[in-house]
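> Could you send the histidine kinase prediction when you get a chance?

Sure thing. Input:
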Amino acid sequence: MSSVSTNTYLIGFFEKNENRILEDWWENILIDATDTQKQVIKENGYLMYQLVKRTLTDTLRDDDLKQLAHKVAKERVEANINIGDFVHNVNYGRSLIIKQTFLSGIEIEQLQAVIDKINLKFDHFIFLAVKRYTFLKEEEIEEKNYFINQSHKDKLTLLGQMSSSFVHEFRNPLTSVIGFVKLLKTDYPNLKYIDIIDHELDQLKFRITQFLHTSKNEGAQEQRKEILKVHLLLEDIIQFLYPSIVDIDVDVTSNFKTDAQVSANKNEIKQVFLNILMNSIDAITKKEKPRKITVCSFTEGDEVIINISNNGPRIPDKTMNIIFEPFYTTKELGTGIGLFVCRKIIEKHSGSISCFSNDKITTFSTRLPLLEATENGATP
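Output:
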């Protein structure tokens, strides 16, 4: 039997068993319960069956195969169904066609050539469909990411505008009040409650500074760096927070690498560790005693690592990946910008910040480039 006669005979055999082939395929393929395009799947199966028959007569154009593959890929993306089910269904259809080919009775020496031709078209169809599906999915993800990023940018722009207004309304009178309080401390060093007032004003100034760091224009004005001894900076912050530490009876322990130093903007880096320590104090406020906070610094390679730990409640795993995102907060009156600003500052200083939390301890770990003492003879 010639190849033309073989193909004609095989097509006739397929058409004779068409209903049984299609019913078998439909009854055994994988269809997700949530798939909104079940009927379309059946129609596409029939279209692929027709293309297989055209393959045998060499009348199938690559564009026709590509058109169907792209149609299916688009529908699978729109249905939001895993592409694995599609691949399984196509291969099950392939196995039915191959099975019928074996049952057709065509001569053995011509069987392999026919099977190879069928397999080649099925492989090409799957390749085209999966490639298109992947492209559409990546495009969809990029659009979603763009929307999320744009939404964040819009919020940050609005927050920057709010910050500017906030600064003009509060910064000048706040500066005046802070100045007069310091004069009072000088003239009346034993004046009752003056240290508390001074401390609370510094806290207010710190909160305002958090908003300022969301404004690019304001941040651009604070680029001056200096050489900082890390342990002196951390000791200064702990001393600054001493009233809050005493107020809730927190046991603060420290262990510092005294020769570690960095090149950084002092006000910005101080804001980072001040914010983390204040968060640690907030986290253990409602905890039963003992309440513990540990602050340590050490060097590792060309980095200095600062770990601030507390024995407060565990941060849930689902929260861990978003605590550094803007506007996320677990505090009733929180703004959700504190840790976002911390990350922004540390990354600007070529460092990184991360968090680890379990039932016993929560640690915020900050890494900054280590400045060797021999690089510069001066220290702050």
